[in-house]
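Input record (Table S2, row 2016):
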Amino acid sequence: MRVVTFGEMLMRLTTDPTVRLQQSNLFTYYYGGAEANVAVSLADFGVDTLYISKVPDNSIGEACEKYLQSNQIDTRHLLKGGDRLGLYFVESGIGNRSSQVTYDRKFSSFSQLKQEEVNWDRILEGADLFHTTGITLALSEELREITLEAMKQAKNRGIKVSFDFNFRAKLWSQQEASKAIEKVLPFIDIAFCNHMDAVHLLNIEVLENETDHEEKLTYYYKQIQAKYPNIQVFASTKREVVSSSSHRLEGYLFADQHISKTHTYTIEPVVDRIGGGDAYAAGVLFGILSKWDPDKTVHFATGASVLKHTLAGDGNAFSIAEVEQFTQNVSQEISR
Amino acid sequence: MRVVTFGEMLMRLTTDPTVRLQQSNLFTYYYGGAEANVAVSLADFGVDTLYISKVPDNSIGEACEKYLQSNQIDTRHLLKGGDRLGLYFVESGIGNRSSQVTYDRKFSSFSQLKQEEVNWDRILEGADLFHTTGITLALSEELREITLEAMKQAKNRGIKVSFDFNFRAKLWSQQEASKAIEKVLPFIDIAFCNHMDAVHLLNIEVLENETDHEEKLTYYYKQIQAKYPNIQVFASTKREVVSSSSHRLEGYLFADQHISKTHTYTIEPVVDRIGGGDAYAAGVLFGILSKWDPDKTVHFATGASVLKHTLAGDGNAFSIAEVEQFTQNVSQEISR
Amino acid sequence: MRVVTFGEMLMRLTTDPTVRLQQSNLFTYYYGGAEANVAVSLADFGVDTLYISKVPDNSIGEACEKYLQSNQIDTRHLLKGGDRLGLYFVESGIGNRSSQVTYDRKFSSFSQLKQEEVNWDRILEGADLFHTTGITLALSEELREITLEAMKQAKNRGIKVSFDFNFRAKLWSQQEASKAIEKVLPFIDIAFCNHMDAVHLLNIEVLENETDHEEKLTYYYKQIQAKYPNIQVFASTKREVVSSSSHRLEGYLFADQHISKTHTYTIEPVVDRIGGGDAYAAGVLFGILSKWDPDKTVHFATGASVLKHTLAGDGNAFSIAEVEQFTQNVSQEISR
Amino acid sequence: MRVVTFGEMLMRLTTDPTVRLQQSNLFTYYYGGAEANVAVSLADFGVDTLYISKVPDNSIGEACEKYLQSNQIDTRHLLKGGDRLGLYFVESGIGNRSSQVTYDRKFSSFSQLKQEEVNWDRILEGADLFHTTGITLALSEELREITLEAMKQAKNRGIKVSFDFNFRAKLWSQQEASKAIEKVLPFIDIAFCNHMDAVHLLNIEVLENETDHEEKLTYYYKQIQAKYPNIQVFASTKREVVSSSSHRLEGYLFADQHISKTHTYTIEPVVDRIGGGDAYAAGVLFGILSKWDPDKTVHFATGASVLKHTLAGDGNAFSIAEVEQFTQNVSQEISR
Amino acid sequence: MRVVTFGEMLMRLTTDPTVRLQQSNLFTYYYGGAEANVAVSLADFGVDTLYISKVPDNSIGEACEKYLQSNQIDTRHLLKGGDRLGLYFVESGIGNRSSQVTYDRKFSSFSQLKQEEVNWDRILEGADLFHTTGITLALSEELREITLEAMKQAKNRGIKVSFDFNFRAKLWSQQEASKAIEKVLPFIDIAFCNHMDAVHLLNIEVLENETDHEEKLTYYYKQIQAKYPNIQVFASTKREVVSSSSHRLEGYLFADQHISKTHTYTIEPVVDRIGGGDAYAAGVLFGILSKWDPDKTVHFATGASVLKHTLAGDGNAFSIAEVEQFTQNVSQEISR
Amino acid sequence: MRVVTFGEMLMRLTTDPTVRLQQSNLFTYYYGGAEANVAVSLADFGVDTLYISKVPDNSIGEACEKYLQSNQIDTRHLLKGGDRLGLYFVESGIGNRSSQVTYDRKFSSFSQLKQEEVNWDRILEGADLFHTTGITLALSEELREITLEAMKQAKNRGIKVSFDFNFRAKLWSQQEASKAIEKVLPFIDIAFCNHMDAVHLLNIEVLENETDHEEKLTYYYKQIQAKYPNIQVFASTKREVVSSSSHRLEGYLFADQHISKTHTYTIEPVVDRIGGGDAYAAGVLFGILSKWDPDKTVHFATGASVLKHTLAGDGNAFSIAEVEQFTQNVSQEISR
Ligand SMILES: [Ca+2]
Ligand SMILES: [Ca+2]
Ligand SMILES: [Ca+2]
Ligand SMILES: [Ca+2]
Ligand SMILES: [Ca+2]
Ligand SMILES: [Ca+2]
Ligand SMILES: [Ca+2]
Ligand SMILES: [Ca+2]
Ligand SMILES: [Ca+2]
Ligand SMILES: [Ca+2]
Ligand SMILES: [Ca+2]
Ligand SMILES: [Ca+2]
Ligand code: NI
Ligand code: NI
Ligand code: NI
Ligand code: NI
Ligand code: NI
Ligand code: NI
Ligand code: NI
Ligand code: NI
Ligand code: NI
Ligand code: NI
Ligand code: NI
Ligand code: NI
Ligand code: NI
Ligand code: NI
Ligand code: NI
Ligand code: NI
Ligand code: NI
Ligand code: NI
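Output record (calcium ion complex):
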């Protein structure tokens, strides 16, 4: 099993949740980025993963590379150069106070990537799946073209293509996103998106009189599939944010005209929600590549995501066995 | 807008909540004191604040001064001298274990303050409001006289007077408190007190057959107002302590014969409840000075208090916009 | 009041709950072991305690000795020698993620203890109670004989004997445990065990159609008592593990054909559950030695156990007065 | 006394000195920048200081503002806007390992500053001295013009102008620096530069057969003064870097055709050398503004710089009395 | 061997050496006091030690008691009551920056001690030596009388009396000290004092034309002995403070008309010098009680003191064997 | 370039240098072992490294594996099973206090390794060099045979064999070591040993009237080479331990009848000396594999070792370029 992911690597600088950024002088820093996070999770499941990005040719870029290597990710095609690594500051929330994100990712090496720097022919060799997200598309016109080129080459080689909408309002408008995403959808096999994406980015007509989340999603996924019959699998989570420290999470997976879902997981305390969605995506992709049935897949993916919320840092760090032990277990009691 | 607050500055020495004081050798220390905390909050709302106190003329007194200055508080009238800064030790509680407070505030510089050291004429110049609390009254006979003098001068200048009962059983008896508080009440416009204060300190007749907290408070506030018609606004919070880590909070404000209240805020986890009452008082005072309607004021004040519980340290650190974003928001989800 | 406890001392090496063991390079370490923990609690209640164990004759053994001494435990009979101290690694769980225990206790000095090293005659002099647990029995055939010898001598001297089943599936099989425990039961006055122990270790017939936990326990305790009429008191807790961070706990005590129980305590957050059972056992033993009535005893013991969960480390650290303040109190609000 | 400083504010992100950046996930962060550091020192000496810069209009810019305010610096003319705050990573060296700096300051708000954003007329009102450094000149062509404009206006108003060469090879070439610096030198009263600057940036003929540092500096300063007779005072330090943890420092001051110097201070351990030069500059400026004799000034400035090396962070934090106590003292023994 | 020490217990609140007190919010706290420190060291050498003091009857007093107990000190005569524990703040120095001490010890429970609270008859029972210092005398007139009484009773019982001058200029004047110390000297067997004490407190004529420290001390000790022939042993250290981080230390011991000294120990880095003198005193007392020859004693005592400087906290923590291994060893190389 | 190293992996548990093990409850832990450390260094120089060891099949063994992988070491032949990982406790010394090592490595999985578990045929495939140390020989008779077998197979394949004497007095006697080492020496090309090893382990006649270290080493290396002409290169360091915090280091390399040496490096402060010898060995091996001249090799190796002393942890973390920058540089000044 071999997966290629493509996207921007970011450094996250985060404060302790009991102080404001202006009161502190300590950051914990993590490397992340949606596509890197997916690669990290998949590597923990034993998948051969190759990650394509561009980082600066300095100590920060080198630290990125070592982070990826320590997670058993193939970095032989990682590009070095450009001005800087994108980063963002997170004033960590807790309880009633929400986390505050301040982006400082403009002018990043990846966002300046040029088409001629990437040799998809060599990168995609031997791959089973290619994954990227809407964040990559948001960063530049050139990146949209590079992504399109990657997807086309993947299609030609019979490699599955996975795409997570990951809409970020701080990066682009719905209108821009809509235009760019509609261009890539015809090449996609697996889509991570939810009903808001359907309405705001794909202009699917709003469902009136809906009864529950399951039915609602089924409607929207079918509508999207009607427009893009190439998309075989849709997935998303439903997250209820009770407070910064308490979330409720459900996983949804649509395949073969049928939606599968999990029961509701209560996550309390939330140690770190960042990367939770990427852990879910990795779980779904792993289930699909393993040809598991949808119910097993959606539980595995949601379990992996729930576990991610108990660890600080963007990347998940659980083996298949550990995720399964969690999804099959009834108690968090110590075994000794 | 210019506010003068008057009271004792304290250093709080607090342990990590997972160990007992006797097991630890690390204190986190904060500067506080009810009146300083109110000043800190008001300064964050953009109010000109002047704080009057007396701290020792040594490195600790200097640190107090710098703390106040870093919070944009006018310290030009801060007195230096005397023996020591009052301090107290807090063995932080968590979950089922409550916090343990050990006071070491006797013989403090402020508690030895002499009338001739304070020039109210110069201090109150240009002020819109004067605020102090029952803690100041509890510290010495002389401080009761100084406070009375301040209130009288404020009255003469048309400056609003605000008083928080803040009864501390470790500092004085109900009987002593009652006597001292009754002397200042005729000069007060805004009173922070609750039904317990009404019964135990002001000897209001107990209400039998009460139905709910709102009606109960209305009865007591009306009774107090009957005796002290000068008091135009009453405010308090209702706090349910589920455990040291989980509180429920409601705000109440009585003005124009009408009580306004908030819904119940669940605070979980409680990072630090100390200063929560002062953040509320500051919010109420800011609403009154801004001539907001009572409903807006009580929500703003309670929201500020709730947010305070998510930060370590006595002083709040939120702007008007941040408090309003919280009171108007429905989710603690990260925005990115 | 003088109590002797006998068992293996262990070092626990534990990670911060927000990282995996493989991601961290920091351990917090604690000394523990079921019987040492009971001694630590009893010493805090003012009991003269003597602890018998064997630790290596090096810096680690010395640190064990100092730990015990700093808890006012008599270490004059603590043996030094052998190869090593047993230790175990705990990857601390939080929320949905459970703690992972990795034992490294094989070949410990205590597990190699020889009968001739222990002089029960001198050790038991003046004692009122002797306490050990099933863990001691699990460690070697020789330790089973040493324990049996200790119990016999205690019986001869009129010293009460207390035994906590503490079955550990990682140490031995139910079959081995059953055989060893049945040999010591005839010498026991106070037994800490639950319905699972009754079924799996003592082969008591399973109760069908049970209605609630209280009735169930009564049935099993009566059945055991029928076989071992020497056992006068049975005790156990019922723990519901909602998540690693949220437990519910009830205490049960059976004496004079009657079961006493507490209401349910919600423990949230759980700071550290290890040692919680030992804190309970110490509370029960203290109540029995103090000739308190069962209701008082079971509430004191459960209260002590609940408080233990709020402290990091195996050993409890509360005085009688502090436990009673907790069991009698209704609020965790700070008193000041 | 009123001083205006002008330059770029930076965030420094620094690792613990016992690990490499790639091995760590913790940064301590400080705010700094040569001109801000000078302002912080001067404020501690009681000088009214006003700092002009531009920071982004987000949580990071706000934190900069609060940092300056907590150091009693006037921020009323601090500009907000643009893309980002310049920052740099420091892998802290120790002993034989040197610190590694990785800049990430490109595209900063300050480096994009436009002439029309700065109203020198209002900023310079009431000032006694204007200070900036070569770093400001290095950042853009526009900043060179803005700086020139500021210096001209200062000259017109009879305000002293101070300039620290602060050549940074990572920011520009010697040739570029030379050209820009020569344009500002005619407006300067006080120059911080050393013999390397004289040779490489001002093309002063190299002194052959020099005997010692004092004579060497005298020669170069006289040569520069011959070209720019407006410069009345020259200052610099001589630093011997024995290792990252052990430096030797001497201060030099040239005025009235005479050079004054200090004895050699051994600094061991060096806690943090960053800001050491700025602490020296502030000391020199304070001595000049106070009309102290050169010997007193150079000892005060060097003492302040030495003390800076014992504190983590860019900004110094000593009063006049504390610096003088150090320069006059013979022992670091505790007084008690 | 049984030793009784008598004096004030203090809490030390100390900052990290890389920040100023006003910049920090973390204190490490230690319990100490000259006489308690001597007791802690002696207990580590296996001596039965009893410590007499008075601490408040609250959580802080209890923590003091547990600290002493964890160091195997007999606290059965420790008094509880009064207003507060004396404490002091230490802004830790490093390198060129000296530590800054701010006392807050006024009104302490011990300083208010009354003669009738101490039953010397029971306390001194079985003792071989009684030790106190000039700090105790400095605290009140009453304490001078209590101390005198203790010494007289000790004399009557044939118990050796030891006294450390420990002059603290922040506590009293030389004149007051002189008067009080001269009253106790006739009862003393072992005196810790140096040539400064001889000149300033005992008015010994200054030695002109002295050649070295050894001769100087010999002269002064002989002069004091001439006045107080009861004093059999004098001891002191000579400390050269190169910087806060680098000291040089020599030990001196005068007995039988002969002075013994050590070579010079370089201490670098100095981790914590507080308690270094007390570790030396304990070493001298232990040598005397063990009837070691002066050379062995002075090396043991100085070695113990040097080791103390490598540990944070007031109390030393080395066994006899560990001190001897240090004094006899030539290398600090790891043995493995 | 491909190198195979073989030896025991250990976990080091180390305290902060300002406290004693018995006073602390925090360990920093590192993975190490002489042969693993050499592999880590070589991997940083870009060498393909394969490490053979046996670790337990649990969370600790897995953490070892991930540590090796994150250092780009091939772990495909790492064995899993057995009872435990060897570990040791280090009470970190500082200044005058030396580090105290307490081993707990008995019964480790590696020490129980059986010949049939290791397939040298597959392991050595493609290797250029095989490296192990005397520690491996010390652990069991079986390991001596396994090592001999490995060396023989290496010889047969034309693979260079490197051996570091690494005598550990806590593991075996000189006599046992002598016997075992003499058996492997005939197969060795590169030997790390010093004059003490020559005298005590190889019974080389002591050199009288030696003049300096260089001549001494030359004599001993020639004597050993006379007995074992197969050894082509000898290397060692000369370390002067001024204190735990200050070392002086020189590198020596003997090849082609000629000894090469470095100047003396002063290391102050010593952050962590453990692994310093292994960093040196890796540097020497890399120089030999790169066919560098002896002078370049010995400076590179010693420079790498010196840099290792500035980092916490056993493994070095410097690239070829970074080591060369250090060996060629004259100053530790920050470049910016
Ligand atoms: Ca991983
Ligand atoms: Ca995500
Ligand atoms: Ca503020
Ligand atoms: Ca409050
Ligand atoms: Ca205890
Ligand atoms: Ca237990
Ligand atoms: Ca300042
Ligand atoms: Ca500088
Ligand atoms: Ca001790
Ligand atoms: Ca001392
Ligand atoms: Ca590496
Ligand atoms: Ca080594
Ligand atoms: Ni959160
Ligand atoms: Ni969250
Ligand atoms: Ni989150
Ligand atoms: Ni709490
Ligand atoms: Ni609370
Ligand atoms: Ni609280
Ligand atoms: Ni738990
Ligand atoms: Ni928790
Ligand atoms: Ni527990
Ligand atoms: Ni430096
Ligand atoms: Ni340094
Ligand atoms: Ni530096
Ligand atoms: Ni010192
Ligand atoms: Ni120091
Ligand atoms: Ni000291
Ligand atoms: Ni060392
Ligand atoms: Ni060291
Ligand atoms: Ni070392």
